[in-house]
TrEMBL record:
Residues 368-440 form the AGC-kinase C-terminal domain. CDD domains: STKc_AGC. Gene3D superfamilies: Phosphorylase Kinase, domain 1, Transferase(Phosphotransferase) domain 1. The keyword Transferase applies. Keywords: ATP-binding, Kinase, Nucleotide-binding, Phosphoprotein, Serine/threonine-protein kinase, Transferase. GO terms for molecular function: ATP binding; protein serine/threonine kinase activity. The keyword ATP-binding applies. It comes from the Eukaryota. Residues 106-367 form the Protein kinase domain. This is Protein kinase domain-containing protein. It holds the Pfam family Pkinase.
Length: 442
């Protein structure tokens, strides 16, 4: 793809959502303001909504903001140790026997995204040539803004334990120096599904089915651990080099504790309003069923080119989510409408519980195009195959960022490894096992 065509696609990518002012809550952007939708007095740890003032940014940077107030190091240690004692055999753990590395072991190649509090950079290990997406977050931004670090740590804590699902992004290293936190993750070169949706306007039922199956498998996998994803949307779904879907951006994901009911243990008004379930927007208790509503919204988006409820400001969108029924275009097939009706039921007691009815779910007419097992085994030719000429050029990412000069970022790097013993982020570091890395870093 030449530069002119790529520029046109990226222009269209932002223009479509800008027309409707459809922007996500809690986006990491250059300027962020916070509002509270009548939820300031609840007991949940994440009761704020963040609204961006700028257009959408690359999803790899979203949700790097934080919320909890940390009074002392012990409270932080409690959050870091959230998964330490679990014996759940569903977790395929990676050990820490791999030799440690330092942040200056990686060469910066391209900027993939940038916001007020950090950036994501394509980096290459200087010694073995492996590529990673390096997410950076400034420690000072967390401390100065007196936010909850749980959102910052959620990707580190969840992804360091959830390592076995092919549709979930992989974490290989978590590092920090005196100034920043770093998550070195799987580089997914195909870019956002959202980009291709904008280019195609909307997808047919068969193509949509291919991606919905993969989202469903990833969500069902997470829900087995009591993890609610809370921000499913096309921007958070990326395509690998073969065109298979990878779920990214776990900054809003949250894990229940053993004494919490999986169906109603969250009550944060959080996520993206176009895709958020009614119970989420009302500040009610919710759980994994909220993710299945979001899947319905994504399915509607894939099939029509827009989510089911839109408006020129967040309040109008929220009012529609709470009060209106989705209006199906004439071209939607009966099989699509059947599944949408099951997922987009505002009554949580009547919404189809996919996790409890996983086998029945796979038998919906909408899924007649593919067998779940064939997609799981990657036996299907994807409907969209990313064009990748050179992995190091990050061709499928926004040129607004990839054209930035790496030399302009060098002043940000702090490679001092002598971290203060009193640093409240001690315990953040993580290294995956050699065998795990060898499995995914070809």
């Amino acid at each position: 793809m030449n530069d002119n065509n790529e520029g046109n696609i990226n222009s269209i990518l932002f223009e479509k959502r800008e027309i409707l002012n459809i922007t996500p809550i809690s986006t990491l952007s250059r300027q962020i303001s916070e509002i509270n939708l009548n939820n300031s007095d609840n007991n949940d740890d994440e009761g704020d909504i963040v609204l961006p003032h700028t257009k959408r940014r690359s999803s790899v940077l979203r949700r790097m903001s934080v919320g909890y107030q940390i009074d002392d190091n012990q409270k932080l240690k409690t959050k870091l140790d959230i998964f330490t004692d679990t014996n759940d055999e569903l977790y395929k753990r990676s050990n820490s026997n791999t030799p440690n590395c330092k942040i200056n072991d990686f060469e910066k190649l391209k900027v993939l995204g940038q916001g007020a509090y950090g950036k994501v950079i394509l980096v290459k290990n200087k010694y073995n040539g492996k590529l990673f997406a390096q997410k950076e977050l400034k420690k000072a931004s967390i401390i100065i803004n007196n936010k909850n670090i749980e959102r910052t740590l959620s990707e580190r804590t969840i992804l360091s334990k959830i390592t076995s699902h092919q549709n979930i992004v992989k974490l290989f290293y978590a590092l920090h120096d005196n100034s920043k936190l770093y998550l070195l993750m799987e580089f997914i070169p195909g870019g956002e599904l959202f980009k291709y949706l904008i280019k195609e306007n909307f997808l047919n039922e068969k193509s949509s089915c291919f991606y919905i199956i993969q989202m469903s498998m990833a969500l069902n996998f997470l829900h087995k651990f009591g993890i609610v994803y809370r921000d499913l949307k096309p921007e958070n779904c990326m395509l690998d080099k073969d065109g298979y879907l990878i779920l990214t951006d776990f900054g809003l994901a949250k894990k229940s504790t053993d004494d919490q009911d999986d169906n109603n243990w969250c009550n944060s008004i959080i996520g993206t309003p176009e895709y958020a379930a009614p119970e989420v927007l009302k500040g009610e208790n919710y759980g994994s069923l909220a993710d299945w509503w979001s899947l319905g919204c994504v399915l509607f988006d894939l099939l029509t080119g827009n989510p089911p409820f839109t408006g020129n400001n967040h309040q109008k969108i929220i009012n529609k989510v709470l009060k209106e029924k989705p209006k199906y275009p004439f071209h939607l097939m009966t099989s699509s409408k059947e599944l949408l009706n099951k997922l987009l039921n505002k009554n949580i007691d009547k919404r189809f519980n996919v996790d409890d009815n996983w086998i029945s779910y796979q038998k919906f007419s909408f899924f007649r195009h593919y067998k779940f097992k064939d997609i799981e085994n990657r036996n299907i030719e994807p409907p969209i195959k990313p064009i990748i000429n050179n992995l190091e050029n990050a061709e499928n990412f926004d040129i607004e960022f990839t054209n930035m000069k790496i030399s302009d970022l060098n002043g940000d790097l702090n490679v001092d490894s002598n971290i203060n013993d009193n640093d409240c982020f001690n315990g953040f570091s993580y290294t995956a096992s050699n065998s795990f890395m060898d499995s995914y870093l070809k």
